[in-house]
Write a structure and sequence with these properties.
It is an enzyme of class 2 (transferase). The protein is an all-alpha fold and about 200 residues long. It has ten helices and no strands.
């Protein structure tokens, strides 16, 4: 068994995932450096803090699709779903730790959702409703993301997903918890803001 396709997919997926669409869009719109706003994150949630819902939505779609594109391209290029999964996982890593930005990127939720959409519909069938239900119930984005991330690999396994895919999803879910560690601390303290609420100026991630 050759590992070259997996190495190529990992490198290609990482570079694709490293494209900081949130930063590019906000700079193009004349809003400055998104890393100097709110949490300093380059993801759609922080872009929304600029007041530009259109840019936040565009960031959400683009951040999601870069993982999906990595999955599709490398799955068909090497005729292997597993290679596509590795490419999507690498895109997730690229989004969270982009080489162009000193390895300081987003938290990976939108990118994870894009991977599930194109690589594991069984995972999406579980994670999507859980995220939506938790968000509508509590209006806390991080809580919805963490709950969905926790349940995705378990639900995918119960629905008959392959062991390889479940392993990849489990690893990514753990990384979601890592990138949300500051949010998790605030959740435990009861200080995590709800959607639409502003953080205190002194708070940093």
């Amino acid at each position: 068994m050759t590992y070259l396709p997996y190495i190529v997919a990992a490198v290609g997926g990482y570079l694709l995932g490293s494209i900081p669409f949130g930063l590019i869009l906000t700079r193009a719109a004349g809003l400055g450096d998104i890393r100097q706003i709110g949490s300093g994150n380059i993801g759609a949630t922080n872009v929304l803090r600029t007041g530009r819902k259109d840019l936040a939505f565009a960031t959400l779609i683009l951040d999601s699709f870069k993982a999906g594109l990595a999955v599709l391209f490398f799955t068909f290029a090497f005729a292997s779903r597993n290679v596509g999964l590795i490419a999507g996982a690498a895109a997730f890593l690229g989004h969270c730790y982009p080489v162009w930005l000193g390895f300081k990127g987003g938290k990976g939720v939108a990118t994870y959702a894009g991977l599930l959409t194109f690589a594991s519909l069984k995972g999406l069938m579980v994670g999507g409703p859980v995220w939506l239900g938790m968000f509508l119930l509590f209006r806390i984005s991080s809580l919805a993301a963490l709950t969905a991330a926790a349940i995705v690999p378990i639900g995918a396994y119960l629905l008959g997903e392959t062991h390889f895919a479940v392993g990849v999803l489990a690893a990514l879910s753990l990384l979601v918890f890592w990138t949300h560690r500051a949010n998790l601390q605030r959740l435990l303290k009861g200080t995590e803001p709800k959607f639409g609420e502003k953080k205190k100026p002194a708070e940093t991630e």
